[in-house]
């Protein structure tokens, strides 16, 4: 499966929340990795691995707190998302090599990794595969759960998406591309924008209080649309990866410590799946909050303090 060429029209309209939001690295296999930076350029480095489906722009929400906590947040697009080259046949354990290449490119001897939502499995893969001396911390915020915990925790919608991605990927790509195009049109109408604004008002997000509701809506849309700049190929690919074996055993993740923060009311990744995973990693610390998948981010100050303490 190859990604479609990136439409120049869309590339030229990417909203930048940082003058460093569109940086590029050529990987050893000649693929392009696009990444953004937020916060303090000389601050403590933290690599943020975005959700599913999403893009590097997701980390723009952390700009205010990164500046307050003297953090340099580096957020790469995974293959096929945003402006990173699609990588046919990739597996979750392949990604830590990209992370290490980025860290080497930026001359980072040590760095922390935080995976949000669908980026969680990739953060754990980093804990599994990267040299311990390179990692100053590994964290997962509202991460995806392993389906091996039990199918009773997986919604019908997610099961159908996984089946479609596995057996009819072309059809699913057509459906997703159509949905994204419909959303592009819908957000130009009053009812759609009012619904989005109402949803945002219910969420406790890191940027709330520093951005207007219109700016927060625009940020959400930019992050979402950026994920599909190359089409939905990466989303279909990752729907398979996240719903099948992740390519490593949790018992073999020996890094000390993998920290997980999760909401007990998370319906995207039920807490039972996370407890199953955390209980199998020898050095994992699971912190549970009375929150949903989205509202757990209101604890971001505590989370960052535990992952990257202020010196």
Give an overview of the whole structure.
This protein has helices at 8-11, 63-68, 95-105, 120-129, 156-167, 169-186, 190-202, 213-227, 233-243, 271-278, 300-307; strands at residues 23-26, 32-39, 44-49, 71-76, 111-116, 135-141, 258-263, 284-289. It is an alpha/beta fold and 311 residues long. Helix 10 (271-278) links the parallel strand 7 (258-263) and strand 8. Strands 1-2-4-3-5-6-7-8 form an eight-stranded mixed sheet.
Write down the CATH class.
Alpha Beta
The amount of helix comes to 25-40%
Total strand count, please?
8
Describe the main β-sheet briefly: 8 strands, mixed
Tally of individual domains = 1
Pfam family, one: Abhydrolase_1
Organism: Aspergillus sydowii CBS 593.65
InterPro entries: AB_hydrolase_1 (IPR000073), AB_hydrolase_fold (IPR029058)
Domain AB hydrolase-1: 45-133
Notable features of this structure?
311 residues, alpha/beta, Rossmann fold, eight-stranded mixed beta sheet, 11 helices, globular, AB_hydrolase_1, AB_hydrolase_fold, AB hydrolase-1 domain-containing protein
List the helices and strands and how they pair.
Blueprint: H1 8-11, E1 23-26, E2 32-39, E3 44-49, H2 63-68, E4 71-76, H3 95-105, E5 111-116, H4 120-129, E6 135-141, H5 156-167, H6 169-186, H7 190-202, H8 213-227, H9 233-243, E7 258-263, H10 271-278, E8 284-289, H11 300-307
Parallel strand pairs: 3-4, 3-5, 5-6, 6-7, 7-8
Antiparallel strand pairs: 1-2, 2-4
Helix pairs in contact: 5-6, 5-9, 7-8
In a few lines, what is going on in this structure?
This protein has 311 residues and is an alpha/beta fold. 37% of the residues lie in helices and 16% in strands.
């Amino acid at each position: 499966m190859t990604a479609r060429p990136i439409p120049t029209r869309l590339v030229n309209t990417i909203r930048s929340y940082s003058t460093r939001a569109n940086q590029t690295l050529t990987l050893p296999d000649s693929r392009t990795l696009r990444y953004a930076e937020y916060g303090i350029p000389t601050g403590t480095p933290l690599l943020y691995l975005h959700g599913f489906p999403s893009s590097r722009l997701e980390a723009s929400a952390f700009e205010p707190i990164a500046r307050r906590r003297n953090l340099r947040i580096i957020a790469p697009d995974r293959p096929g998302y945003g402006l990173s080259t699609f990588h046919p046949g990739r597996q979750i354990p392949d990604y830590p090599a990209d992370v290490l290449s980025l860290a080497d490119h930026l001359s980072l001897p040590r760095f922390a990794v935080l995976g949000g939502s669908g980026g969680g499995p990739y953060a754990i893969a980093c804990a599994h595969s990267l040299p311990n001396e390179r990692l100053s911390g590994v964290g997962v915020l509202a991460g995806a759960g392993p389906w091996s915990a039990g199918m009773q925790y997986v919604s019908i919608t997610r099961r159908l998406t996984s089946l479609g991605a596995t057996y009819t990927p072309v059809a699913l790509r057509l459906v997703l591309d159509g949905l994204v195009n419909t959303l592009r049109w819908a957000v130009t109408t009053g009812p759609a924008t009012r619904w989005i604004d109402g949803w945002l008002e219910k969420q406790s997000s890191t940027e709330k209080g520093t951005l207007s509701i219109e700016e927060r809506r625009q940020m959400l849309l930019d992050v979402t649309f950026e994920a599909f700049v190359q089409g939905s190929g990466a989303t279909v690919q990752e729907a398979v990866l996240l719903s099948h074996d992740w390519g490593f055993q949790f018992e073999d993740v020996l890094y000390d410590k993998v920290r997980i923060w999760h909401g007990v009311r998370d319906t995207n990744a039920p807490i039972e799946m996370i407890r199953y995973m955390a209980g199998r990693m020898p050095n994992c610390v699971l912190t549970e909050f009375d929150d949903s998948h989205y509202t757990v981010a209101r604890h971001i100050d505590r989370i960052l303090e535990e992952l990257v303490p202020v010196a």
